[in-house]
Design brief:
Residues 79-109 are annotated as: Disordered. This is PKP2 protein. It is found in: Cell junction. It comes from Rhagologus leucostigma. The chain is mainly alpha-helical. It has 2 domains: 1-64 and 107-177, Alpha Horseshoe (Leucine-rich Repeat Variant); 196-295. Helix content is 63%, strand content 0%. It contains 17 helices and no strands. It has helices at 8-16, 20-33, 40-52, 56-59, 62-68, 90-98, 117-129, 133-146, 152-164, 168-173, 180-193, 200-214, 223-240, 244-252, 256-263, 271-285, 291-295. Helix 2 (20-33) crosses helix 3, helix 12 (200-214) packs antiparallel against helix 13 and helix 15 (256-263) packs across helix 16 (271-285). The relative contact order is 0.09.
Protein backbone atom coordinates (compact mmCIF):
# COMPACT_ATOMS: atom_id res chain seq x y z
CA UNK A 1 0.00 0.00 0.00
CA UNK A 2 2.85 2.39 0.83
CA UNK A 3 4.75 1.43 -2.32
CA UNK A 4 1.71 2.08 -4.52
CA UNK A 5 1.81 5.75 -3.57
CA UNK A 6 5.50 6.15 -4.47
CA UNK A 7 4.91 8.07 -7.73
CA UNK A 8 4.63 7.32 -11.47
CA UNK A 9 7.57 4.92 -11.71
CA UNK A 10 6.39 2.91 -8.72
CA UNK A 11 2.86 2.69 -10.13
CA UNK A 12 4.22 1.60 -13.52
CA UNK A 13 6.33 -1.20 -11.99
CA UNK A 14 3.45 -2.45 -9.87
CA UNK A 15 1.00 -2.42 -12.78
CA UNK A 16 3.49 -4.46 -14.80
CA UNK A 17 4.07 -6.99 -12.00
CA UNK A 18 2.55 -10.24 -13.25
CA UNK A 19 -0.37 -11.45 -11.17
CA UNK A 20 -0.36 -8.58 -8.65
CA UNK A 21 -3.52 -6.76 -9.76
CA UNK A 22 -5.30 -10.07 -10.43
CA UNK A 23 -4.45 -11.24 -6.88
CA UNK A 24 -5.77 -8.04 -5.30
CA UNK A 25 -9.05 -8.29 -7.24
CA UNK A 26 -9.33 -12.00 -6.38
CA UNK A 27 -8.88 -11.30 -2.66
CA UNK A 28 -11.54 -8.55 -2.61
CA UNK A 29 -14.00 -10.73 -4.53
CA UNK A 30 -13.52 -13.45 -1.92
CA UNK A 31 -14.01 -11.01 0.95
CA UNK A 32 -17.28 -9.74 -0.56
CA UNK A 33 -18.48 -13.32 -1.23
CA UNK A 34 -17.72 -14.24 2.40
CA UNK A 35 -19.54 -11.10 3.62
CA UNK A 36 -16.32 -9.70 5.06
CA UNK A 37 -16.08 -6.24 3.43
CA UNK A 38 -14.68 -4.61 6.58
CA UNK A 39 -11.41 -6.48 7.14
CA UNK A 40 -8.13 -4.59 7.09
CA UNK A 41 -6.67 -6.61 4.20
CA UNK A 42 -9.60 -5.64 1.96
CA UNK A 43 -9.01 -1.99 2.86
CA UNK A 44 -5.31 -2.38 1.92
CA UNK A 45 -6.16 -4.07 -1.40
CA UNK A 46 -8.64 -1.35 -2.37
CA UNK A 47 -6.21 1.42 -1.39
CA UNK A 48 -3.53 -0.17 -3.62
CA UNK A 49 -5.95 -0.40 -6.57
CA UNK A 50 -7.01 3.20 -5.90
CA UNK A 51 -3.39 4.33 -6.15
CA UNK A 52 -2.71 2.20 -9.24
CA UNK A 53 -5.70 3.76 -11.02
CA UNK A 54 -4.31 7.28 -10.45
CA UNK A 55 -3.50 9.03 -13.77
CA UNK A 56 -4.14 5.72 -15.51
CA UNK A 57 -5.29 7.39 -18.72
CA UNK A 58 -1.99 9.30 -19.03
CA UNK A 59 0.26 6.47 -17.89
CA UNK A 60 -1.27 3.60 -19.88
CA UNK A 61 1.25 1.50 -21.82
CA UNK A 62 1.45 2.38 -25.52
CA UNK A 63 -0.23 -0.87 -26.61
CA UNK A 64 -3.37 -0.06 -24.61
CA UNK A 65 -3.29 3.59 -25.56
CA UNK A 66 -3.34 2.66 -29.26
CA UNK A 67 -6.33 0.32 -29.00
CA UNK A 68 -8.39 2.46 -26.60
CA UNK A 69 -7.58 5.94 -27.85
CA UNK A 70 -7.57 5.39 -31.60
CA UNK A 71 -10.70 7.55 -31.70
CA UNK A 72 -8.80 10.61 -30.49
CA UNK A 73 -7.16 11.00 -33.90
CA UNK A 74 -10.53 12.04 -35.28
CA UNK A 75 -10.74 15.01 -32.93
CA UNK A 76 -9.08 18.09 -34.32
CA UNK A 77 -7.01 20.16 -31.93
CA UNK A 78 -8.73 23.21 -33.43
CA UNK A 79 -11.94 22.18 -31.66
CA UNK A 80 -10.49 22.96 -28.25
CA UNK A 81 -11.82 26.12 -26.65
CA UNK A 82 -10.83 27.68 -23.34
CA UNK A 83 -13.50 27.89 -20.66
CA UNK A 84 -14.16 27.96 -16.92
CA UNK A 85 -14.29 24.19 -16.60
CA UNK A 86 -11.37 22.83 -18.63
CA UNK A 87 -10.11 23.30 -22.16
CA UNK A 88 -12.53 21.10 -24.05
CA UNK A 89 -15.66 22.48 -25.65
CA UNK A 90 -19.07 20.84 -25.29
CA UNK A 91 -18.88 19.96 -29.00
CA UNK A 92 -15.72 17.94 -28.43
CA UNK A 93 -17.26 16.17 -25.43
CA UNK A 94 -20.30 15.22 -27.47
CA UNK A 95 -18.09 13.94 -30.27
CA UNK A 96 -16.24 11.74 -27.82
CA UNK A 97 -19.42 10.38 -26.33
CA UNK A 98 -20.73 9.49 -29.78
CA UNK A 99 -17.56 7.54 -30.57
CA UNK A 100 -17.88 3.74 -30.38
CA UNK A 101 -16.13 2.43 -27.29
CA UNK A 102 -13.72 -0.52 -27.38
CA UNK A 103 -15.26 -3.89 -26.57
CA UNK A 104 -14.57 -5.12 -23.06
CA UNK A 105 -12.55 -8.31 -22.62
CA UNK A 106 -14.40 -11.12 -20.87
CA UNK A 107 -11.29 -12.27 -18.97
CA UNK A 108 -9.17 -9.19 -18.24
CA UNK A 109 -5.62 -9.67 -16.98
CA UNK A 110 -3.37 -7.31 -15.07
CA UNK A 111 -3.74 -3.63 -15.92
CA UNK A 112 -6.83 -4.35 -18.07
CA UNK A 113 -8.70 -5.20 -14.86
CA UNK A 114 -8.30 -1.66 -13.53
CA UNK A 115 -11.03 -0.21 -15.77
CA UNK A 116 -13.06 -3.41 -16.31
CA UNK A 117 -16.75 -3.47 -15.32
CA UNK A 118 -16.06 -6.34 -12.89
CA UNK A 119 -13.86 -4.12 -10.73
CA UNK A 120 -16.22 -1.15 -11.11
CA UNK A 121 -19.01 -3.31 -9.67
CA UNK A 122 -16.69 -4.44 -6.85
CA UNK A 123 -16.02 -0.80 -5.90
CA UNK A 124 -19.75 -0.03 -5.91
CA UNK A 125 -20.41 -3.11 -3.79
CA UNK A 126 -17.80 -2.04 -1.22
CA UNK A 127 -19.23 1.50 -1.13
CA UNK A 128 -22.63 -0.01 -0.30
CA UNK A 129 -21.53 -2.77 2.08
CA UNK A 130 -18.37 -1.67 3.87
CA UNK A 131 -18.52 0.48 6.99
CA UNK A 132 -14.78 1.27 6.97
CA UNK A 133 -14.26 4.89 5.96
CA UNK A 134 -10.90 4.21 4.27
CA UNK A 135 -12.41 1.39 2.20
CA UNK A 136 -15.33 3.61 1.16
CA UNK A 137 -13.04 6.53 0.35
CA UNK A 138 -10.61 4.36 -1.64
CA UNK A 139 -13.46 2.76 -3.64
CA UNK A 140 -14.94 6.18 -4.44
CA UNK A 141 -11.46 7.52 -5.16
CA UNK A 142 -10.66 4.71 -7.60
CA UNK A 143 -13.86 5.47 -9.54
CA UNK A 144 -13.00 9.17 -9.38
CA UNK A 145 -9.57 8.42 -10.89
CA UNK A 146 -11.06 6.27 -13.65
CA UNK A 147 -13.61 8.95 -14.65
CA UNK A 148 -11.19 11.88 -14.48
CA UNK A 149 -9.96 11.97 -18.09
CA UNK A 150 -11.54 13.11 -21.33
CA UNK A 151 -10.98 10.02 -23.49
CA UNK A 152 -13.27 7.09 -24.31
CA UNK A 153 -12.24 5.00 -21.29
CA UNK A 154 -13.37 7.50 -18.59
CA UNK A 155 -16.70 7.97 -20.37
CA UNK A 156 -17.14 4.19 -20.66
CA UNK A 157 -16.48 3.82 -16.92
CA UNK A 158 -18.95 6.65 -16.18
CA UNK A 159 -21.61 4.94 -18.27
CA UNK A 160 -21.02 1.65 -16.46
CA UNK A 161 -21.30 3.32 -13.04
CA UNK A 162 -24.52 5.21 -13.84
CA UNK A 163 -26.43 3.03 -16.30
CA UNK A 164 -25.09 -0.53 -16.30
CA UNK A 165 -24.26 -1.03 -12.62
CA UNK A 166 -26.86 1.34 -11.12
CA UNK A 167 -24.20 2.88 -8.88
CA UNK A 168 -25.84 6.25 -8.14
CA UNK A 169 -27.87 5.13 -5.07
CA UNK A 170 -24.69 3.89 -3.33
CA UNK A 171 -22.78 7.06 -4.21
CA UNK A 172 -25.74 9.23 -3.13
CA UNK A 173 -25.70 7.59 0.32
CA UNK A 174 -22.08 8.69 0.77
CA UNK A 175 -23.15 12.35 0.48
CA UNK A 176 -24.80 12.02 3.88
CA UNK A 177 -21.97 10.37 5.87
CA UNK A 178 -20.28 12.33 8.63
CA UNK A 179 -16.72 11.57 7.46
CA UNK A 180 -15.62 14.71 5.51
CA UNK A 181 -13.07 12.94 3.24
CA UNK A 182 -15.61 10.30 2.15
CA UNK A 183 -18.20 12.99 1.37
CA UNK A 184 -15.62 15.07 -0.53
CA UNK A 185 -14.56 12.09 -2.68
CA UNK A 186 -18.18 11.15 -3.41
CA UNK A 187 -18.88 14.70 -4.62
CA UNK A 188 -15.68 14.72 -6.74
CA UNK A 189 -16.79 11.47 -8.39
CA UNK A 190 -20.24 12.92 -9.13
CA UNK A 191 -18.58 15.99 -10.60
CA UNK A 192 -16.64 13.77 -13.00
CA UNK A 193 -19.75 11.77 -13.90
CA UNK A 194 -21.77 14.94 -14.51
CA UNK A 195 -19.41 16.02 -17.32
CA UNK A 196 -20.89 13.26 -19.48
CA UNK A 197 -23.83 14.93 -21.23
CA UNK A 198 -25.58 11.62 -21.98
CA UNK A 199 -25.78 10.83 -18.25
CA UNK A 200 -26.84 14.22 -16.92
CA UNK A 201 -30.60 13.60 -16.82
CA UNK A 202 -30.09 10.33 -14.88
CA UNK A 203 -27.71 12.00 -12.43
CA UNK A 204 -29.98 15.02 -11.91
CA UNK A 205 -33.00 12.83 -11.26
CA UNK A 206 -31.14 10.61 -8.77
CA UNK A 207 -28.87 12.98 -6.85
CA UNK A 208 -29.55 16.68 -7.59
CA UNK A 209 -31.90 17.13 -4.58
CA UNK A 210 -29.32 15.40 -2.34
CA UNK A 211 -26.53 17.66 -3.61
CA UNK A 212 -28.66 20.69 -2.76
CA UNK A 213 -29.53 19.29 0.67
CA UNK A 214 -25.86 18.91 1.65
CA UNK A 215 -24.96 22.41 0.48
CA UNK A 216 -24.22 24.56 3.54
CA UNK A 217 -26.16 27.75 4.30
CA UNK A 218 -22.96 29.80 3.89
CA UNK A 219 -19.26 29.30 3.11
CA UNK A 220 -17.93 26.63 5.50
CA UNK A 221 -14.96 27.31 7.73
CA UNK A 222 -12.67 24.38 6.89
CA UNK A 223 -10.62 23.77 3.75
CA UNK A 224 -12.06 20.31 3.04
CA UNK A 225 -15.68 21.48 3.51
CA UNK A 226 -14.97 24.49 1.32
CA UNK A 227 -13.57 22.26 -1.45
CA UNK A 228 -16.59 19.96 -1.15
CA UNK A 229 -18.94 22.94 -1.44
CA UNK A 230 -17.11 24.20 -4.54
CA UNK A 231 -17.30 20.72 -6.08
CA UNK A 232 -21.04 20.54 -5.44
CA UNK A 233 -21.51 23.91 -7.17
CA UNK A 234 -19.51 22.80 -10.21
CA UNK A 235 -21.49 19.53 -10.36
CA UNK A 236 -24.74 21.52 -10.28
CA UNK A 237 -23.28 23.78 -12.97
CA UNK A 238 -22.68 20.76 -15.22
CA UNK A 239 -26.19 19.42 -14.60
CA UNK A 240 -28.02 22.72 -15.15
CA UNK A 241 -25.92 24.46 -17.80
CA UNK A 242 -27.83 23.00 -20.75
CA UNK A 243 -31.03 21.94 -19.01
CA UNK A 244 -33.76 24.31 -17.97
CA UNK A 245 -35.55 21.30 -16.45
CA UNK A 246 -32.59 20.56 -14.15
CA UNK A 247 -32.30 24.24 -13.22
CA UNK A 248 -35.97 24.13 -12.19
CA UNK A 249 -35.19 21.02 -10.11
CA UNK A 250 -32.52 23.00 -8.27
CA UNK A 251 -35.03 25.79 -7.71
CA UNK A 252 -37.73 23.48 -6.34
CA UNK A 253 -35.17 21.84 -4.02
CA UNK A 254 -34.68 25.29 -2.40
CA UNK A 255 -31.13 25.52 -3.73
CA UNK A 256 -31.11 29.13 -4.88
CA UNK A 257 -30.97 30.87 -1.44
CA UNK A 258 -28.05 28.62 -0.44
CA UNK A 259 -26.11 29.30 -3.66
CA UNK A 260 -26.69 33.05 -3.33
CA UNK A 261 -25.52 33.02 0.31
CA UNK A 262 -22.36 31.07 -0.58
CA UNK A 263 -21.58 33.40 -3.50
CA UNK A 264 -21.79 36.50 -1.28
CA UNK A 265 -18.92 35.59 1.03
CA UNK A 266 -16.44 38.49 1.31
CA UNK A 267 -13.60 36.61 2.97
CA UNK A 268 -10.51 35.89 0.87
CA UNK A 269 -9.63 32.87 3.00
CA UNK A 270 -12.21 30.52 1.50
CA UNK A 271 -13.04 32.11 -1.86
CA UNK A 272 -13.07 28.86 -3.87
CA UNK A 273 -16.65 28.00 -2.86
CA UNK A 274 -17.87 31.58 -3.40
CA UNK A 275 -16.36 31.67 -6.86
CA UNK A 276 -17.96 28.33 -7.80
CA UNK A 277 -21.36 29.51 -6.51
CA UNK A 278 -21.06 32.74 -8.51
CA UNK A 279 -20.32 30.83 -11.71
CA UNK A 280 -23.32 28.59 -11.02
CA UNK A 281 -25.58 31.64 -10.51
CA UNK A 282 -24.35 33.22 -13.73
CA UNK A 283 -25.15 29.99 -15.60
CA UNK A 284 -28.59 29.64 -13.98
CA UNK A 285 -29.48 33.18 -15.12
CA UNK A 286 -28.92 32.10 -18.76
CA UNK A 287 -32.23 30.18 -18.56
CA UNK A 288 -34.40 33.19 -19.40
CA UNK A 289 -37.63 31.16 -19.06
CA UNK A 290 -36.94 30.86 -15.34
CA UNK A 291 -36.29 34.55 -14.60
CA UNK A 292 -39.72 35.19 -13.09
CA UNK A 293 -39.41 32.06 -10.91
CA UNK A 294 -35.95 33.18 -9.78
CA UNK A 295 -37.26 36.65 -8.88
CA UNK A 296 -40.06 35.15 -6.78
Amino acid sequence: RNMSSAGPEGRKKMRECEGLIDSLVYYIQGAIADHEPNDKATENCVCILHNLSYQLEIELPESYAQSIYMQRRNISSNDKTPGCFGTRSRRVKEKQQDTPLPEEKSNPKGVESLWHSTLIRIYLSLIAKSTRNYTQEASLGALQNLTAGTGPMPFAVARTVVQKANGLPSIRAMLHVSHPAVKKTAVSLLRNLSRNTSLQSDIAREVLPDLVSVLPECVPGSDIACETTASICYTLFNLTQSSSHNARLLLSAQGLPKVIAISMNDSNTFSKASRAASVLLYSLWSHTDLHSAYKK
